[in-house]
Amino acid sequence: MDLRVLGYVVAIAEEGSISGAARRLQLTQPTLSRQLHDLERRLGVELFARAGRGIVPTAAGEALIRRAVHILADADAALNDVRLAAEGKTGRLTVGFAGSGINGALGDALGRLRAELPDVDLSLVELFDDAEMSVGILDGSLDVAVQRLPVRDARLATRVWTHEPLAIFLPSGHPLARTSDPAPVSVLGEIPLVLWPRESAPHAHGEITTLCHSAGIVPRVGARGRTVQTILALVAAGFGAAVMTDSYRVLHREGVTSRRLAGTTTTLHLVWRAGDMSPLLTRFMTALSGRAGG
């Protein structure tokens, strides 16, 4: 049955006359009368009966109108869902991230995005390994990732999102912690380092050792930790210092003092499957990029 004709029936019932419904629908009265009579002939029933100067639904008409109201509402809702999906305003998006992102610019951006896109189901997955995030993009378990060191793979598309300074996190009682001024990279040679294990976080481990080697420093390893909490606990216990993004200072770990490392920065990338530019993903990255820091 034509949804348009169902709308005519509902309009006639609401207006109480064919002439009133025709004006509302911007149709001629003969046209609307013909549509109603054609429908009644196909159904083999009368849908309206005269009552005074107007018309009212028959029992058959009331049954049809009850159904028609729900059908038309569902049809409108379906069309609205299609429109919102095409505009990237509904759907599910799975976002991978690391603590270095969520503690900084990403946390603020996601809060604003939730307000802008209330009908989007944002599923957030915390991962501690950049390589694992890239794999998640490739196997489809993630739609987009915000990460520092994406794997180089032709199947991945990447875009620089924002930059953040690196900092050295020191035991509060260490002489290097007596000032909060930015520290030169050379201080990495003055204290053992608490590092990520190479086997579990090769990219992060490599970034720190490369930073040392570029400054002519052979790093001394004081301890290793697999999570930020463990690394900061080891720093507080005096095992050495850790190099992490400056945003981790918001954790305020007792016994740990941070200083920015002068002249250093790390980059957060948006990573997604090459060729995947769904409306929702496009809107997400456009909104995120519009708030990127420099």
Structure notes:
With 294 residues, the protein is α/β, with parallel strands linked by helices. The chain folds into 3 domains: 3-86, Winged helix-like DNA-binding domain superfamily/Winged helix DNA-binding domain (Arc Repressor Mutant, subunit A), CATH 1.10.10; 91-163 and 267-289, Periplasmic binding protein-like II (D-Maltodextrin-Binding Protein, domain 2), CATH 3.40.190.10; 166-264, 3-Layer(aba) Sandwich (D-Maltodextrin-Binding Protein, domain 2). The chain is 42% helix and 22% strand. The chain has helices at residues 3-15, 18-25, 29-43, 59-86, 99-102, 105-116, 130-139, 202-214, 228-236, 279-289; strands at 48-51, 54-57, 91-97, 120-126, 144-147, 156-164, 166-171, 193-195, 221-224, 242-245, 256-260, 266-273. The strands form 4 sheets. It has a 5-stranded mixed β-sheet with strand order 4-3-5-12-6, sandwiched between helices. A 3-stranded antiparallel β-sheet has the order 10-7-11. Helix 1 (3-15) packs across helix 2 (18-25) and helix 1 (3-15) crosses helix 4 (59-86).
